[in-house]
## 1
Amino acid sequence: MDYLLHIAIMANIYIILVLAANLPAGMSGLMSLCQGAFYGLGAYFGAFFLLRTGLPFPVIVIAVMFFVGITSLLVSVASVRLKGDYFVLASLGFQMIVFTVLYNWVDVTRGPYGISGIPDIQLIGKGIGSLSGIDTYFILTTVLAACSAALFLHLKRSPFGRLLRALRDDEHVLVALGRDPARIKFQSFFLSAAFSALAGLLYAAYIGYIDPTSFTLDESIFILCALFIGGIGNVRGPVAGAVFVVVLPEILRFIGLPDALAANLRQVIYGLLLILIMYYQPQGLQGEIKLK
């Protein structure tokens, strides 16, 4: 049972991550390769607050989301001048900078040694309402994933969501209507980074240990893969994609492959299934749009 709950918890964390990635990539048309950086910053900020303060969990959530959201301005400023592939490279640069800082600033982040002994979440305050145990984290992550999905669904249907889609489809129309595309990009990236940070905080509190290798470029690509597999531009797609990429590798563990070949064959089967999905369902499992 604990194994199933662990998979469900990780799926919930990735649902929040992929929903956050969908905001700039799916709804705004800004492809970013730095979601793993925001995820990592959320985990490290969260670890700092959990280790050094006795603040209630809701306060820590607000603080982590705000501080990481502010760092997203470094990326969104680049989006004002850079388009297409050039912006993708700029976001890649930010990802590499964050990983380098996390890996080499040993005095603060403990570098490759990582940060261990991250305490349980305190709902109300230090020593009060402590959240521990896999059952509790399952409930907490499920509630937060459901709230995140509901919020992004409301956002998609709101006037701001229509502005994001207009930004994706034709930025010049926004300018003609007197809207400021730069401001909309800033808001989009701020929200995306903030919710990625929430996922990072939950990951750090649940696992109790973090190190930079969990927040590399590979992680950013993995998040985007989940987004494209599920489908971009709506809420159903990110949820479906997150569940798919978390659950499928676990299912492949039980197909009875020889021990000597199991790991490599599972990777081959996983890759083939992803190719088939993209070939026969190019807009994703629950896709709404296709990027031009």
Note: Residues 2-215 form one domain.
## 2
Amino acid sequence: MLQAIHHAAIICSDYARSKAFYVDILGLRVVAETFRAERQSWKLDLALPDGSQIELFSFPGAPARPSYPEAQGLRHLAFQVADVAAAKDRLEAKGVTVEPIRVDALTNRAFTFFSDPDGLPLELYEAG
């Protein structure tokens, strides 16, 4: 029945800052950008090369997401990359703090974590 993940939705605290992070630093392509006046809310549809999308929302007064210690619910969002070390270097060159690269003991694949402007944990996971 399920075929793929179509999109993940993220609520940010500072729309301009998060838009710059996802578009300028991570390189996601803008599909559509809509301001919903009745909600005083932006919705930015962003695409990855495989067609999957991220919806970036701004909602006035949204509470902060608990991350540390980890809370129940969605743990993190992982992006597949061809080379974790190269992707890590590119992010760090743009001022993003990235954790040291580790190797998954179960898959033997390299991975690392970094955070978006609101502290949402994001992962780089090396393709096989």
Note: The longest helix spans residues 15-25.
## 3
Amino acid sequence: MKHLKIRQSILAGAALALVSTLAACGPKAPPVIAPPPPKMVVIPPQPMPPRGASPNLVTPPINTYGVRQTINTGISPAQTTWNLRSAYNVAALNCMDPKHAQILVNYREFLKTHAKKLTQVNKTVDNEFKAKFGPRFIAPRELYMTQVYNYFALPPTQSSFCDAALAMSNEAATLKSADIDSFAARNLPSIEQVFLRFYTSFDQYRVDLAAWQAKYMMTGTAPVPAPQPLSYQLSPTPAQAPAQ
């Protein structure tokens, strides 16, 4: 009886060993592979308007020849001189940084030295508006000059504008009245470049913003409002300018 139990134990162990051997020889279960971690999407900051400008600002249009149509485009020599004088007026009133203090000093001297020539230019501009609009030319001229003053008073450009105006005013300090028109023809485009560069950078901001919105904004997100014209605070009219 004892021998029978030993034999059964031996047979059971052999059977177990055989099962283990067969299991080891069978197909192996595929290894468990952990899924890759989710990719992190880094969303860059939304493009912002240059120099803290309002996102609703409207830039002057560019014509088919690639020329931006500003308040200073296609104007007469007399209007060029008067617009430069208007830019000088805005700078004298608005450029309050100590480094720009000489602008006001130079402007007062400019008005005093060239009073006769400036009066002549003003009359010429009046005649040009009268020829175009007839006896009721005053209203369109005042509207245009309001646009001129507001153009040069554009807040995001003030720092660069004041730098350009300071350079212009220093050059004007030695100017002869007979040379004012040629001086204006050279210097108004230089001051205009301040605004053209800003408008170009703002147009690029709109392009960058549209690309950012197309790539990162979720469907159903409220769109950015369409640009609307801004009304900036009007600079004082020539009659209110200092030392006139």
Note: The helical segments are 2-25, 77-94, 102-113, 115-133, 138-152, 158-172, 180-216.
## 4
Amino acid sequence: MAVNTKRILVLGAYGFIGAEVVRALQAAGFAVAGLGRCAEQAARVLPGAPFARGDLRHLLQPEDWMPLLQGVDAVVNCAGVLQDMTPGELEAVHHTAVTALAAACADRGIKVVQVSAAGAAPHAATEFMRSKARGDAALRASGAAAWILKPGLVIGQGAFGGTRLLRMLAAVPLVQPVALAKAPVQCIGMADLAAAVAAALNGVLPPGTYDLVEDQPHSLEEVLAETRSWLGFTSARMVLRLPGWLLRPVAAGADALGRLGWRSPLRSTAIAEIQSGVRGDPEPCRAVTGRGMATLPSIYRSLPAGREQRLDAQMALVMPFAVAVLSLFWLASGLIGLWQLEAAANVLMAEGWSIFPAKTSVVFWSFADIALGLAVLWRPWAARACLGMAAVSLVYLMSASVAAPQLWADPLGPLVKVLPGILLALMTHQLLEER
């Protein structure tokens, strides 16, 4: 591997695109450091890579960037958010922070490679695209040496956002559900995107704005069929083409879950982007490089697929249902305990408990069940809530084994049935790990 003296800072380094860009640049010999919000995730995704903690929502002035740019020759911005999780997040991350970064880089002679999105334009249908376009425009106006790369739907070995949604839908057994089946989509392989970033940093690609897309669009239905075939799932017996009007309540539900911290790929912005079509013009990039981007079939042929990809797709499909079942089970358990307070207390009183501690215990654990059933719905707490469910279930088993051991032999199996609940909570805890 050739040694490259250029020092590169990658923003959003442990994300879907950022992680692959970091690995590709490291393989090309660049000295790469990452920047993002969570050092723990970075260490898990990119073990051993230098990393600085930073949040673009708070890097809104050129001087905020100065400590992070010490000794840096170029910045690659792979950071982005699909939809506001907090008010103003899109504007801060895609425009204000990029404007400040561009000014700081122009002042220091630092190159900037911006990973934008195909379709980003001032009058685009979504604020995601409009805010991306404002950031792109600020970067072009800054005077910094700038490359604005606008990929289509990015296909890689990993999966996140739209790519994960494709795999989830492809994992549905027997039938292939699809809405907006005729929506046009142009894809790009992660390898081509990372190669374009490296070409910009090496001076092979001149500064400018480039759509990174394959030559011809596919319909969304065709993209799903290619994805299903690549994963190795059996062909669907029928295609279930869902009506467009159904997307509005689906998006509204996904947006509501977004307020609870769940970044569903079915939120209104994602659906609006599919409705608009994922398209770009491949000619400017071809005119400079002399070649086009790999087509979707060739992208998938270049990516190995096996049991782990199929299992990931299936588990991504199952995870929302697992969370819903856990929430309903624990809420029902707590509410039934309060509703049947006398009957539940009588079980303990039959074992020698007095009425006050028996009722107090039932009320306490009923509210604990309700709290866990609600906590698993709040995304930042969901994984810990699953561990809490497993722990509380073990407390129930041990306490019942001491206080009422005959329940193990009960024909309805009230204690035996706790065991699969513990297993579901522990499995869901693992499914909730995003990267």
Note: The mean pLDDT is 92.
